[in-house]
C-alpha cells in the first residue's frame, strides 16, 4: 500500500482515522456526501485531507437520480460517511498502514530516521 | 449569462488547458471556449473572451462522465457550492411558478457545470489535473483534525527511545544534502527494497557503503534486506 511522499501527510494520516480509509484502496465502498448524494465505487486514492478518488462509480444524486461515472473525486469537506465494507478487518488495516509508514520513516535505522513533526499542538 | 466576465486567461500554474470545450451550466450551453485548469482556480473563457472562474474550495466534487444515458456527451462534471445566476430561471417566476429548487435550500446552493471537450480522450488528463489542483487547496475550515504541528522536525524514533533532544542535531541531515548522485541512487534503491522487504533472517555482513555497493555489482545475488534497525548506523555518510 503506497504511503504518501509528504512527511506532513504521513504525520496527519498517522494521527487520524484517515489512515483507515487509505487502507481501503482497491475496495468497493459507498461514500455518503454532505448533500445527501451517494457514490459507490472502487477507492483509488485517499489523501490526508480525506479527498477521495473513486473509479467505476454509481452516483445517486440528492434527488435520487442514478448515473455512472468513470472517475469521481470528492473533497474531504464534502464527505459525510464512508461505509467500510463488512469484510474489512479494521484493526489489521490500520496496523498495516502504520507499518508501511514506519518502514519509510525508519529506513536509515536508529538515530537516522526521517524527520517527522512532533506531536500536534494541544488546544 | 450575467455572471460572465471578461478577463485574461491564467498565465501561471496552468496544469492543463483544453481548447474547443463547451461549458454547460445547469443544462444550458454557454458556447465553445477553452478550459484552463490552473493551480489557483478553474477558468473557462469562450471564444469572445467572456467567461468565469471557479475557486477550488467551492468545488465539492468533479468527475468523468461517459454514461450517455445520463448525458448525451462525455464530459467533465463539476459540482460547485455556490449559486450562479441563470437568466433562464427568471422566466418560470414570471409564470407564477415558484422556484421549488430553492424551497429546500436551507442547505447549500449547488451549481452543476459540465465541460464537454471535443477531444474525448482528454478527459482523463483534465480529471487528473483537477485532482492535483484540488489537493493544493485543503479545507481551511477543517477544525476537527488538528493538522498544526509545531516545532521543528525531529527524529521520531530517537525521541521515543528517550535519546533525542528536541531539536536535535544530526550529521544525517547534512549528510543527506551532500550525497553524491551515486549515493542518492543507492539511497533510493535501498528505500525501494526496504519498502518491499519481508522480515528476513539474513543480516548484511559489514557496512553498507558506496564501496560495498560496487563489490556486488558483478551480478552476485545477495540477500540485502536490512532486517535489523540500526544496521546502517555506522554507514559512512560524508563523502
Automatic annotation (TrEMBL), chain A:
It comes from the Eukaryota. PROSITE patterns: SM. This is U7 snRNA-associated Sm-like protein LSm10. Residues 16-88 form the Sm domain. It holds the Pfam family LSM. Coiled coil: none annotated.
TrEMBL record, chain B:
It is found in: Cytoplasm; Nucleus. Its main location: cytoplasm. The keyword Nucleus applies. Keywords: Cytoplasm, Nucleus. Involved in both the assembly of spliceosomal snRNPs and the methylation of Sm proteins. Chaperone that regulates the assembly of spliceosomal U1, U2, U4 and U5 small nuclear ribonucleoproteins (snRNPs), the building blocks of the spliceosome, and thereby plays an important role in the splicing of cellular pre-mRNAs. Most spliceosomal snRNPs contain a common set of Sm proteins SNRPB, SNRPD1, SNRPD2, SNRPD3, SNRPE, SNRPF and SNRPG that assemble in a heptameric protein ring on the Sm site of the small nuclear RNA to form the core snRNP (Sm core). Belongs to the pICln (TC 1.A.47) family. This is Methylosome subunit pICln. It comes from Apteryx mantelli. The gene is CLNS1A.
Amino acid at each position: 500500500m503506497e504511503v504518501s511522499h509528504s512527511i506532513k501527510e504521513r504525520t496527519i494520516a498517522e494521527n487520524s482515522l484517515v489512515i483507515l480509509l487509505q487502507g481501503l484502496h482497491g475496495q468497493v465502498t459507498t461514500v455518503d456526501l454532505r448533500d445527501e448524494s451517494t457514490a459507490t465505487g472502487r477507492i483509488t486514492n485517499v489523501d490526508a485531507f480525506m479527498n477521495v478518488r473513486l473509479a467505476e462509480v454509481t452516483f445517486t444524486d440528492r434527488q435520487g437520480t442514478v448515473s455512472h461515472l468513470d472517475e469521481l473525486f470528492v473533497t474531504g469537506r464534502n464527505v459525510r460517511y464512508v461505509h467500510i465494507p463488512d469484510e474489512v478487518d479494521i484493526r489489521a488495516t490500520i496496523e498495516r498502514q502504520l507499518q508501511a509508514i514506519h518502514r519509510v520513516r525508519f529506513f536509515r535505522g536508529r538515530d537516522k530516521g526521517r524527520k517527522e513533526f512532533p506531536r500536534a499542538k494541544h488546544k | 449569462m450575467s455572471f460572465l466576465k471578461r478577463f485574461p486567461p491564467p498565465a501561471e500554474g496552468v496544469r492543463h488547458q483544453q481548447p474547443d470545450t463547451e461549458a454547460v451550466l445547469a443544462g444550458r450551453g454557454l458556447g465553445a471556449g477553452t478550459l484552463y485548469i490552473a493551480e489557483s482556480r478553474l477558468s473557462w473563457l469562450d471564444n469572445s473572451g467572456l467567461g468565469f472562474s471557479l475557486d477550488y474550495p467551492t468545488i465539492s466534487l468533479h468527475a468523468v462522465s461517459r454514461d450517455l444515458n445520463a448525458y448525451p456527451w462525455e464530459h467533465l462534471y463539476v459540482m460547485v457550492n455556490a449559486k450562479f445566476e441563470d437568466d433562464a430561471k427568471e422566466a418560470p417566476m414570471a409564470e407564477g411558478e415558484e422556484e421549488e429548487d430553492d424551497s429546500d435550500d436551507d442547505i447549500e446552493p449547488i451549481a452543476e457545470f459540465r465541460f464537454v471537450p471535443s477531444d474525448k480522450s482528454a478527459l482523463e488528463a483534465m480529471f487528473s489535473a483537477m485532482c492535483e489542483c484540488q489537493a493544493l487547496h485543503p479545507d481551511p475550515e477543517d477544525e476537527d483534525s488538528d493538522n498544526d504541528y509545531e516545532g521543528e522536525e525531529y527524529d521520531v524514533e530517537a525521541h521515543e527511545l528517550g535519546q533525542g533532544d528536541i531539536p536535535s542535531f544530526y550529521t544525517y541531515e547534512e549528510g543527506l544534502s551532500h550525497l553524491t548522485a551515486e549515493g542518492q541512487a543507492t539511497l533510493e534503491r535501498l528505500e525501494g527494497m526496504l519498502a518491499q522487504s519481508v522480515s528476513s533472517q539474513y543480516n548484511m555482513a559489514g557496512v553498507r557503503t558506496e564501496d560495498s555497493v560496487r563489490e556486488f555489482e558483478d551480478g552476485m545475488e545477495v540477500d540485502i534486506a536490512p532486517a535489523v534497525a540500526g544496521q546502517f548506523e555506522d554507514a559512512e555518510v560524508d563523502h
